[in-house]
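Lab meeting notes turned into a lecture example. A postdoc, R.K., suggested we walk through two folding results consecutively so the class can see how the record format repeats. The first protein's sequence and structure tokens come next.
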Amino acid sequence: MAVYSINNNCLAVKVNSFGAELISLLTSDGTELLWQASKDIWPRFAPVLFPIVGRLKNNSYAYNESNYVLSQHGFARDKEFVLIEQSNSCLKFELTADEASLELFPFHFSLIIAYTLKDNTLDVSYKIFNPDNKELLFSIGAHPGFSTKRFKEENINDYYLEIDGLSHLTAERLQEGLISGSTYNIDLDKGVLPLSVALFNNDALVFKNNQINSIRLKSKKSKD
């Protein structure tokens, strides 16, 4: 386990090789944009979700007449990645299948995650290679936690999501952490969704069918 850094005049980035997890995203004025892990609330920063996103019923699945156990969001977030490329502006990590992963997920793979700085933007890319001659079945996702206390006396109610100028979103209703099959609408005001603790009373917000093309987290107390 090691922490690697890249920076420029706008941003300073730190990534842990364990999970290839982004652990700090610091602006030039010293503002931390990323949630800083807390054991009492959420002990992660920005885990990588692979080879599944979300939860399986009973944490298990069947493939080719065999049963496998796979916990929520998969195992990549708890694996040591290998740093395969480093420059002043880029960090690139790789995870490949091993004996332990094959017991949970019967596929060979190479997962490469690259963090690249360009001006005031951090680009994160994911590439999955299939070295086998059979189909590789997987999901991959990002789970970054962003700070909603960037400025003095801020809280979650000062923040909102800016989503494509949409009028509403159709969300999946979850039951015991699983998609239930029913949906409900979330109304937006010219693409704006105010954040609050109550918004997540019924678990995470899940949107299917590529409803969102871009999303911005903004604060009422900031011009950014």
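The second example is placed directly after the first for contrast:
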Amino acid sequence: VASMSIQIEWIDWTKPSDRVEVRRLWDELYERSTVRQPTSRFEQIELWFDAFAPHARREALVAEENGRWLAVVPLLRTSLHGMLPSWEIPHCHWTPSPEILFDAEQHRDPGLVGAVVHGLMRNGRWLLRANELLGDSSVVQQVEQSLKGTPYQHDWATRYEIGKVPIHGAGAPKNWEDFLS
């Protein structure tokens, strides 16, 4: 999209009175996004905060144009080892993390993806940890590609792939018994 005027903002929906409008905009974007896992819906993000970080500020980075959300990244303020200020995408080791929501019609637009990446990296925190994101999602691949073109130091590694067994090439099982194990 050539003439986008993307605005990046940080939202805080910690106060219950702020949640109605955030829920509406979030779920509208979810319906327009490429994501289908329910852990990315606003209600599920709320449940995560209620269960795992009930006293934390509920924040997100939003990319919007003319009041319409184009992307949203839910975030939790934290610190690495109690010292290094950082953000984390809320995650749980039992289910996938919420995906970064991008409007399906614009999720491959380098201007939009780049604006979100730059917004995340200029956030007053020194580190963004995105544990448990689905590395094969098109949005995650777009973000990873966008990071490569920036001056920001980054380390992107897939720790493990659940439910995927390579059947040929590197790491493939040698025989049927190896595959079954």
